[in-house]
Amino acid sequence: YAKLKDPIKDKITVTNMWPYQKIWIASQTDGDGALIGVGSNLSYEYAEKALKQFETLGYLPENELERIEQSSTPYRRPPYSFVGDGFLAVGDSACVTTPWGGEGVPYAWLLCQIASEEFGKAMKEPGILKKESVWNVNLRYQELQGALFAKNLALLPGALSCKPEENDYEFKKSIIVQDESEQGQGWILINAYLIGEKIFKHYMNYPKDPTGMKDWIEQADALWKKTVSMATLAEEDLALIDTKIKAVDNSAQIDN
């Protein structure tokens, strides 16, 4: 939460976002203030360093910090199966969040809706539920959302393995949003796009019952090993930020 130093000139009327840095600014209930958000992997400390580095670029209006709120969201691949004997994983425990922004509520509710329908039918039968009776939860979720999210998760490192200007262009031209007419147009995303498509097709070919799961998992593991981890990119970026901070500190000491 920040107080704008010149609320008349810098009044926030629309939300602005810088996808490469995962930073955004929006209005708040106080007309003289603004909400400045930053998302990152690894830690809150990394997010703070990323924001400080971004502030040096001059995109944000002059402001005075009022307070900080922090929260986390699960950001990793969901489990290959959401059901077991008498068991269901949903929401944050199932890591059901959108790959691009980390939001989870509407996407988790889709899984909840599917589960309520399938478990509702299965619970009419006596005894403890067996995973075979609710396996359709997995099938329906992968077809409606899971396969697409898996593809996007594979695409994301490719989208971010570029310069900030290139990343902004990708978002501006809808190269990395879900517009089928523009899929694969960004040369920077070719490798990530190809593996993402393979992962998408594999998830759409999810086993019809648990008996085919062992082979399916082996193939899925092999595909995911070909992707780049967002945590790896974050660690590399954090090391780069720390190097820049040290260089600035050393320069200041020399000047003094």
From TrEMBL:
Gene3D superfamilies: FAD/NAD(P)-binding domain (3.50.50.60). InterPro entries: FAD/NAD-bd_sf (IPR036188). This is Uncharacterized protein. It comes from the Eukaryota.
